[in-house]
Design brief:
It is built from four helices and 15 strands. By secondary structure, it is α+β, with helices and mostly antiparallel strands.
Length: about 190
Protein backbone atom coordinates (compact mmCIF):
# COMPACT_ATOMS: atom_id res chain seq x y z
CA UNK A 1 0.00 0.00 0.00
CA UNK A 2 1.63 3.23 -1.14
CA UNK A 3 1.12 6.62 0.46
CA UNK A 4 -0.27 8.86 -2.32
CA UNK A 5 0.85 11.96 -0.41
CA UNK A 6 4.50 10.84 -0.43
CA UNK A 7 7.05 11.69 -3.12
CA UNK A 8 8.65 8.78 -5.00
CA UNK A 9 11.48 8.40 -7.50
CA UNK A 10 11.82 6.37 -10.67
CA UNK A 11 13.87 3.86 -8.65
CA UNK A 12 10.76 3.32 -6.47
CA UNK A 13 8.51 3.16 -9.55
CA UNK A 14 10.59 0.29 -10.96
CA UNK A 15 9.82 -1.85 -7.89
CA UNK A 16 6.02 -1.53 -8.08
CA UNK A 17 3.77 -4.31 -9.35
CA UNK A 18 0.45 -2.61 -10.15
CA UNK A 19 -2.29 -4.03 -12.33
CA UNK A 20 -3.19 -0.51 -13.51
CA UNK A 21 -0.82 1.98 -15.11
CA UNK A 22 0.57 4.91 -13.13
CA UNK A 23 2.71 7.94 -13.85
CA UNK A 24 4.85 10.09 -11.58
CA UNK A 25 4.36 13.85 -11.67
CA UNK A 26 7.26 15.48 -9.80
CA UNK A 27 7.38 12.40 -7.57
CA UNK A 28 3.66 12.04 -6.87
CA UNK A 29 1.68 9.04 -8.11
CA UNK A 30 -0.99 9.68 -10.75
CA UNK A 31 -3.23 6.74 -11.56
CA UNK A 32 -4.25 6.29 -15.18
CA UNK A 33 -7.64 5.07 -16.28
CA UNK A 34 -7.93 2.69 -19.21
CA UNK A 35 -8.54 4.56 -22.47
CA UNK A 36 -12.01 4.23 -23.95
CA UNK A 37 -12.75 2.86 -27.41
CA UNK A 38 -12.95 6.30 -29.08
CA UNK A 39 -9.59 7.26 -27.60
CA UNK A 40 -8.04 4.08 -28.99
CA UNK A 41 -9.51 4.65 -32.47
CA UNK A 42 -8.02 8.13 -32.66
CA UNK A 43 -4.68 6.99 -31.24
CA UNK A 44 -4.52 4.28 -33.90
CA UNK A 45 -5.27 6.73 -36.73
CA UNK A 46 -2.72 9.30 -35.57
CA UNK A 47 -0.13 6.58 -34.94
CA UNK A 48 -0.72 5.21 -38.46
CA UNK A 49 -0.06 8.69 -39.92
CA UNK A 50 3.07 9.11 -37.80
CA UNK A 51 4.36 5.64 -38.70
CA UNK A 52 3.96 6.34 -42.43
CA UNK A 53 5.65 9.74 -42.16
CA UNK A 54 8.62 8.46 -40.12
CA UNK A 55 9.21 5.28 -42.13
CA UNK A 56 12.87 5.34 -43.16
CA UNK A 57 13.43 8.45 -41.00
CA UNK A 58 15.96 8.50 -38.13
CA UNK A 59 13.22 9.54 -35.65
CA UNK A 60 11.28 6.76 -33.91
CA UNK A 61 7.59 6.64 -32.91
CA UNK A 62 6.29 5.02 -29.73
CA UNK A 63 2.83 4.58 -28.20
CA UNK A 64 1.63 3.96 -24.64
CA UNK A 65 2.50 2.23 -22.51
CA UNK A 66 6.02 3.63 -22.99
CA UNK A 67 7.89 5.27 -20.11
CA UNK A 68 9.27 8.74 -20.73
CA UNK A 69 11.48 9.90 -17.86
CA UNK A 70 11.83 13.66 -17.54
CA UNK A 71 14.76 14.36 -15.22
CA UNK A 72 15.23 17.79 -13.72
CA UNK A 73 17.98 18.97 -13.96
CA UNK A 74 19.15 17.17 -17.09
CA UNK A 75 22.55 16.14 -15.66
CA UNK A 76 20.77 13.73 -13.28
CA UNK A 77 19.34 11.73 -16.19
CA UNK A 78 21.32 8.54 -15.53
CA UNK A 79 20.42 8.02 -11.89
CA UNK A 80 16.98 6.43 -11.34
CA UNK A 81 16.75 7.69 -7.74
CA UNK A 82 17.08 11.31 -8.94
CA UNK A 83 14.24 11.12 -11.50
CA UNK A 84 10.82 12.16 -10.20
CA UNK A 85 8.74 12.45 -13.36
CA UNK A 86 7.71 9.46 -15.48
CA UNK A 87 4.91 9.90 -18.02
CA UNK A 88 3.33 7.63 -20.60
CA UNK A 89 2.23 9.84 -23.51
CA UNK A 90 -0.32 8.37 -25.88
CA UNK A 91 2.18 8.83 -28.73
CA UNK A 92 5.65 10.30 -28.93
CA UNK A 93 8.48 10.77 -31.40
CA UNK A 94 12.13 10.72 -30.37
CA UNK A 95 14.82 11.86 -32.81
CA UNK A 96 17.86 11.63 -30.53
CA UNK A 97 18.85 7.94 -30.23
CA UNK A 98 20.93 8.66 -27.09
CA UNK A 99 17.64 9.28 -25.24
CA UNK A 100 16.45 5.72 -25.87
CA UNK A 101 17.28 2.74 -23.69
CA UNK A 102 15.65 -0.56 -22.77
CA UNK A 103 13.41 1.20 -20.21
CA UNK A 104 12.02 3.73 -22.71
CA UNK A 105 13.04 7.35 -23.18
CA UNK A 106 15.07 9.56 -20.87
CA UNK A 107 14.69 13.22 -21.70
CA UNK A 108 12.15 15.16 -23.69
CA UNK A 109 10.70 13.60 -26.84
CA UNK A 110 10.61 15.86 -29.89
CA UNK A 111 6.85 15.40 -30.35
CA UNK A 112 4.24 14.32 -27.81
CA UNK A 113 0.59 13.57 -28.64
CA UNK A 114 -2.02 13.27 -25.89
CA UNK A 115 -5.61 12.31 -26.61
CA UNK A 116 -8.09 13.48 -24.01
CA UNK A 117 -10.52 11.14 -22.27
CA UNK A 118 -13.27 12.08 -19.81
CA UNK A 119 -11.02 11.15 -16.86
CA UNK A 120 -7.81 12.86 -17.95
CA UNK A 121 -8.64 16.25 -19.47
CA UNK A 122 -7.46 18.37 -16.53
CA UNK A 123 -4.28 16.31 -16.16
CA UNK A 124 -3.27 16.64 -19.81
CA UNK A 125 -4.23 20.30 -20.10
CA UNK A 126 -2.51 21.43 -16.92
CA UNK A 127 0.05 19.20 -15.24
CA UNK A 128 1.44 17.46 -18.31
CA UNK A 129 1.38 20.71 -20.29
CA UNK A 130 3.71 22.26 -17.71
CA UNK A 131 5.92 19.15 -17.50
CA UNK A 132 6.35 18.92 -21.27
CA UNK A 133 7.04 22.64 -21.56
CA UNK A 134 9.63 22.64 -18.72
CA UNK A 135 11.41 19.56 -20.04
CA UNK A 136 11.78 20.93 -23.57
CA UNK A 137 9.30 18.93 -25.68
CA UNK A 138 9.54 20.73 -29.04
CA UNK A 139 5.96 20.11 -30.16
CA UNK A 140 2.89 18.99 -28.19
CA UNK A 141 -0.45 18.04 -29.69
CA UNK A 142 -3.59 17.76 -27.58
CA UNK A 143 -6.50 16.08 -29.35
CA UNK A 144 -10.00 16.28 -27.87
CA UNK A 145 -12.33 13.60 -29.30
CA UNK A 146 -15.45 14.95 -27.55
CA UNK A 147 -15.12 18.51 -28.89
CA UNK A 148 -13.45 17.32 -32.13
CA UNK A 149 -10.59 19.77 -32.02
CA UNK A 150 -6.83 19.78 -31.51
CA UNK A 151 -4.17 22.18 -30.27
CA UNK A 152 -0.64 22.21 -31.69
CA UNK A 153 1.84 23.78 -29.28
CA UNK A 154 5.35 24.68 -30.41
CA UNK A 155 8.15 25.34 -27.93
CA UNK A 156 10.04 28.61 -28.02
CA UNK A 157 13.43 27.17 -27.07
CA UNK A 158 14.75 30.48 -25.73
CA UNK A 159 11.95 31.02 -23.22
CA UNK A 160 10.87 27.36 -22.82
CA UNK A 161 7.25 28.32 -23.32
CA UNK A 162 4.65 26.82 -25.64
CA UNK A 163 2.79 28.91 -28.17
CA UNK A 164 -0.11 27.89 -30.34
CA UNK A 165 -2.57 29.17 -32.87
CA UNK A 166 -6.31 28.82 -32.51
CA UNK A 167 -7.67 25.32 -31.94
CA UNK A 168 -8.10 23.21 -35.06
CA UNK A 169 -11.63 21.93 -35.53
CA UNK A 170 -12.91 18.99 -37.53
CA UNK A 171 -12.68 20.97 -40.79
CA UNK A 172 -9.03 21.93 -40.26
CA UNK A 173 -5.72 20.41 -41.24
CA UNK A 174 -3.28 19.51 -38.49
CA UNK A 175 0.22 20.48 -39.60
CA UNK A 176 3.38 19.94 -37.64
CA UNK A 177 5.58 22.99 -37.21
CA UNK A 178 8.52 20.73 -36.40
CA UNK A 179 8.29 18.17 -39.19
CA UNK A 180 7.62 19.62 -42.67
CA UNK A 181 5.00 17.65 -44.57
CA UNK A 182 3.59 15.91 -41.50
CA UNK A 183 -0.07 16.82 -41.80
CA UNK A 184 -3.51 15.27 -41.96
CA UNK A 185 -7.12 16.32 -42.22
CA UNK A 186 -8.81 16.42 -38.84
CA UNK A 187 -11.87 14.67 -40.34
CA UNK A 188 -9.68 11.64 -41.00
CA UNK A 189 -8.97 11.08 -37.31
CA UNK A 190 -12.49 11.86 -36.07
CA UNK A 191 -14.34 9.59 -38.55
Amino acid sequence: MLDLSKQYSYADYLTWKFEERVELFRGFIAQMSAPNRRHQQIAFRVNFTLARYFEGHPCECYFAPFDVRLPKPEHLRKNDKDIYTVVQPDLCVICDPTKLDDKGCIGAPDLVVEILSPGNSKKEMNIKFDLYQESGVKEYWIIDPAAQYAFVYTLDEQTLTFSNKRPLDIDGTLQSNLFPGLEFEMKAIFE
